[in-house]
Amino acid sequence: MKKVIFITAPEIFRDEEYVIPKRILEEASVKVVTASAKKGEITGRFGTKAVSEMTIDEIDPNDFDAIVYVGGAGSSVFFENATALKLANDFFSSGKPTAAICIAPTIFANTGILKGKTATSFPDAKEALIKGGANYTGNPLEIAGNIITANGPDAAEIFAKAILEKIISN
Q1: Which domains does the chain have, with CATH numbers?
Q2: Which residues of the chain have pLDDT under 50?
Q3: Residue 135 CB burial class (10 angstroms; 0-12, 13-18, ≥19)
Q4: Which of 47, 64, 108, 129 is the S-S candidate for 134 at Cβ 3.0 to 4.6 Å?
Q5: What are phi and psi of 123, to 5 degrees?
Q6: Model-level pTM?
């Protein structure tokens, strides 16, 4: 069974960007594990409750087939977080699907893995992506090798389907 780790803010994550990809992956028999800055209950912007099964410090990239950074204002807690940045780099370097939606692609920009790559994000993160060397498009979805970026909640479904396709073909 394929296994994906979702990095989700402890609060103010974007509900649709968590719920929709999680549902689509689980319906395809992919195990989704949620991690955050803390264990236990985490809350989305619109009240979705989820459970963080582990902290990001406990993640072993060898245990997962892909990593997904869920967006929303809360994801900014990971923009400069050394562990979150290292995880993105580790998954990317190992050729595993490395995905982020909304403003979360800022994490990728801050690791340097977007240099010269086509990427998208919520408009609020545009400058961070450009500063990180990305060819920013603003499109709903961009796939550059094993990096998948999406621009926000309206793209949650196509984002999830792109992740699933990468997991299956990887």
Answers
A1: 3-169 (3.40.50.880)
A2: none
A3: middle
A4: 129
A5: -50, -30
A6: 0.98
